[in-house]
Specification:
Layout (H helix, E strand, L loop, with lengths): L7 H9 L2 H16 L2 E2 L7 H5 L7 E5 L24 H14 L10 H5 L2 E5 L4 E2 L11 H15 L4 E5 H5 L11 E5 L16 H11 L12
Parallel strand pairs: 2-3, 2-5, 5-6
Antiparallel strand pairs: 1-4
Length: 223
């Protein structure tokens, strides 16, 4: 694996050396060679490559990568340019417009957020094509739980944005005495009206960052 850069290689070295990670790697070698797996193996760790550790301002947790062609590219909730917006992302954009008055963009590529300090990490990093949650038991939960704990322990004043039951279950991994934890239902059409709409997590994130001397995140993807 090529170095991740941005301070991640040093932080995650104990995880990459762990026997549990080696089992994940062996599993993935077999899966990528025998099935269509998303994201592309070269995009697998984009969430780390685009957001250096010392620039992390917020952590937005997703669950499972998108499992249809040309969608997943290593950033949760994000799809490649030119791909139709998934329903959850449409609702995220609606909430941003209501919260911050930012016009809803046509593009679903969230790379700009990643480069602005938002770690966009799924709790499961791979999936078989057209088979949601197919890799949820291969060991990724151990790995990403460990990443969350390491970020909590080695940074200060980061906003952890937890949408939906899977993400909210990670709250005990985070030190709430030195970070802000924002929780609400998932933006999926099945639950968005149960508390996601109106959560104002985008403005709350920026208010917290400003109050701790950090630059706010530019959530506007239109420029």
């Amino acid at each position: 694996m090529k170095p991740l850069g941005g301070g991640w290689d040093e932080l995650l070295a104990p995880l990459f050396a762990d026997e549990r990670y080696k089992k994940i790697r062996e599993f993935l070698k077999e899966e990528y060679s025998t099935h269509v797996i998303y994201p592309d193996m070269y995009d697998l760790y984009n969430c780390f490559r685009y957001t250096p550790l010392n620039e992390v301002k917020a952590v937005l947790l997703g669950q499972d990568p998108y499992h249809n062609p040309n969608q997943a590219h290593g950033l949760c909730f994000s799809v490649k340019k030119g791909v139709q917006l998934p329903p959850s992302l449409v609702n995220i954009y609606k909430e941003i417009e209501t919260d911050l008055g930012i016009k809803q963009p046509d593009c679903g590529d969230l790379t700009k957020w990643a480069k602005s300090g938002v770690l966009l990490m799924n709790t499961t990093l791979t999936v078989r094509a057209h088979m949601a949650n197919s890799h949820s038991r291969c060991g990724w939960a151990w790995f990403t739980d460990s990443v969350i704990k390491l970020i909590s322990e080695n940074t200060e004043n980061v906003v952890f944005i937890l949408w939906g039951g899977n993400a909210r279950s990670k709250a005990p991994l985070i030190d709430g005495s030195k970070h802000l934890i924002l929780q609400c239902p998932h933006p999926s059409p099945l639950s968005a009206f149960s508390g996601f709409f109106g959560c104002k997590h985008f403005s709350k994130t920026n208010e917290y960052l400003i109050s701790h001397g950090k630059q706010p995140i530019d959530w506007d993807l239109n420029n």
